[in-house]
Fold this protein.
Amino acid sequence: MTDKTPTYTGPERVFSGIQPTGNLHLGNYLGALKKFVDLQEAGSEGIYSVVNMHALTMPVAPRDLLDQTRQIAAAFLACGIDPDKSVIFPQSAVPEHAELAWVFNCVARMGWVERMTQFKDKAGKDAERASVGLFTYPVLMAADILLYKATHVPVGDDQKQHLELARDIAERFNRDYDVPDFFPVPEPLIQGPGARIMSLKDGTKKMSKSDPSELSRINLVDTAEDISRKIKKAKTDLLGDMPSDAEGLKGRPEVENLVGIYSALSGETVDSVLSQFGGQGFGVFKPALVDVTVAHLSPITARYREILADPAEIDRALASGVDRARAIAAPVMNDVRRIIGFWQA
Ligand code: AQP
């Protein structure tokens, strides 16, 4: 929205969130959780939220919301987020998220938010009956990120447009209030083989919690048998054996997706996977993919079950995260109140 070069010079900080809206799947893991852990191991300061306020945008029973909040926190821990190194907390426990979102509702323009395709996808044909929260969800997401002055945001490819809106809001706030270096313009961290994991039943649709077909996704809680069954039933095509190079994946979205999953989980490049399996049938490739997937996910699933059995431990990690998140958020929100002219005692 502006050609002014951002002048923010504060520390680098990573923020991302996951909604407590159901079982996490391989797409959430490769597109988000695995990146959080890799960034943590690389020494980044990370703030990871269970964004339960976002979950309210669609109908959810209170008991489910609470249980699923603990489940996502357990998944953070099981995947390797260390609460001593990174901050994990439930969004609703830091009220500054809602306050900053209101300010940003008044900074963002209707035209910007109306362009968001995820609202159209999620509201479907009956947009009149969708919650107002579902419409302004990307504005709350901008507040989530900027409340911590986060500079980097690891997300899957489906969040690219929302990140662009957060960048526009940061720039507009800085310009309108003449505070050019107040909010950083956050960089999306989307690249990598797990950025867009597709449905196992349709290589043109993203893997999603809300897909009615269980066979479309691999959940983090799936057993080895579930994983084997789902991969063996995964759609391929009738265009022959596995191609030997990336060129041969063109027009074969289901095969490209399975190869992408193998590559993301094994750490091998797509070229290396194809040089190994090129010319072979899916009867050879699929069992190998089952092995790689089970080997990678089964320790996470086992840890996840252990952690879930100890809700007090989960709550301790969340409570300590809330204190640390508020310690960052409160001064930023104080500055925002001062900048925009809100009365303060
Ligand atoms: N298929 C995917 N491939 C790569 N990354 C993905 N993410 C989601 N699906 C894929 C990333 O996971 C993070 C958390 O997502 P979320 O729970 O906040 O919301 P979502 O994107 O709405 O997840 P779902 O599974 O697709 O839920 P529904 O079905 O409700 O829409 C984000 O970083 C997201 O990019």
Q: What stands out?
A: The domain at 214-305 is CATH 1.10.240.10 (Tyrosyl-Transfer RNA Synthetase). The chain is about 50% helix and 5% strand. The pocket of adenosine-5'-tetraphosphate is lined by residues 18-19, 21, 27-28, 30-32, 155-156, 158-159, 194-197, 206-210 (CB under 6 Å). The chain has a mean pLDDT of 95.
